[in-house]
Design a protein that fits this description.
The protein has 317 residues and is of the alpha/beta class. Helices cover 36% and strands 20% of the residues. The strands form four sheets. Strands 1, 2, 3, 4, 5, 6, 14, 15 and 16 form a nine-stranded mixed β-sheet that branches. Strand 14 (254-258) and strand 15 form a beta hairpin.
Length: 317
């Protein structure tokens, strides 16, 4: 029996320009990342009128030993609809390097129900997660630089809630002390790292409906508290503009394909246990605009991912 990677590598994917034509994406909105990946400019949603298609949510499936989980079922269902002549587009989350290199493994489906190029999708893809990590860590750097250079906002270093991130399972970094080495190297304090997909920036990224909305949401992030217990936000540190600049290209949904050539948007990936566990609103809206059916998924089971999909993502969108 062939492994997932052997199946994926034995398939000859279509050029991404052809997938874009199947999906109805005009060339002017397409930004190519090689032959089989592309970003689609979010101005497509603003400049073109599309009646939204039907939204199908896959949930409540615990993976079997063979791996038939939500993503596999989502891709299989979309391919089946396409086989029946339906105009269908998939919308999925991007995998995190933590699970990819951990026990769980990748998140591009399995068997003959995969999105490709699966190696790229499971690794650096188009760099979205690196941009999200950079935006998160820029805010952390600006926060510590503010404290180092006079602390005008009167921030209590014992009440800082903002952590740095790295897209890796690295428990050694969860709770650390930094700023050591004397006055030139910062203010000593307790700190820590989360995994990138557990960052508030990731959750915000996937709920943003435009670059302006993204910037406003980033500005409302609470990073800590003053000695008087007043919240300090990213806006107080004047950080949201620089953070949004790092995310401007990442915000464009990524277009790939299933093994059977069904168009698929793979964009964003917040964990469902700490955030809403769904791909970006931007990608879902794009899939609904371009297809008569959008097949998507929500992390974990119905009692967690689907609840959050309905209560958070659907309400906000």
């Amino acid at each position: 029996m062939l492994t997932d990677i052997e199946i994926a590598q034995a398939t000859e994917p279509k050029p991404i320009g052809e997938i874009a034509r199947i999906a109805g994406v005009d060339e002017k909105y397409l930004e190519l990342y090689g032959n089989y990946k592309a970003k689609v400019d979010y101005n497509l949603l603003r400049e073109e009128e599309h009646a939204p298609g039907k939204l199908i949510l896959v949930t409540a499936i615990n993976p079997t030993p063979a791996g038939e989980g939500k993503t596999t079922t989502t891709v299989g269902l979309a391919d089946a609809l396409a086989q029946r002549g339906k105009n269908v587009v998939v919308a999925l989350r991007e995998p995190s390097l933590g699970p990819v290199f951990g026990i769980k493994g990748g998140a591009a489906g399995g068997g003959y129900a995969q999105v490709v190029p699966m190696e790229d999708i499971n690794l650096h893809f188009t760099g979205d997660f690196h941009a999200i990590g950079a935006a998160n860590n820029l805010l952390a750097a600006l926060l510590d630089a503010h404290i180092q250079n006079g602390n005008e906002l009167n921030i209590d270093v014992r009440k800082i809630t903002w952590k740095r991130v790295v897209d890796m399972n690295d428990r050694q970094l969860r709770h650390i002390v930094d700023g050591l080495g004397g006055k030139a190297h910062g203010v000593p304090r307790e700190d820590g790292f989360d995994i990138t997909v557990a960052s508030e920036v990731m959750a915000i990224f996937c709920l943003a409906t435009s670059i302006t909305d993204l910037k406003e949401r980033l500005g409302r992030i609470v990073v800590g508290y003053t000695y008087d217990d007043a919240p300090v936000t990213a806006h107080d540190l004047k950080a949201e503009g620089a953070m949004a600049a790092l995310l401007k290209d990442a915000l464009k949904p990524n277009l790939v394909q299933t093994l059977e050539g069904t168009p698929a948007f793979v964009h964003g990936g917040p964990f469902a246990n700490i955030a809403h566990g769904c791909n970006s609103i931007m990608a879902t809206r794009m899939a609904m605009a371009l297809g008569d059916y959008c097949v998507t998924e929500a992390g974990f089971g119905a009692d967690l991912g689907a609840e959050k999909f309905l209560d958070i993502k659907c309400r906000l969108a």
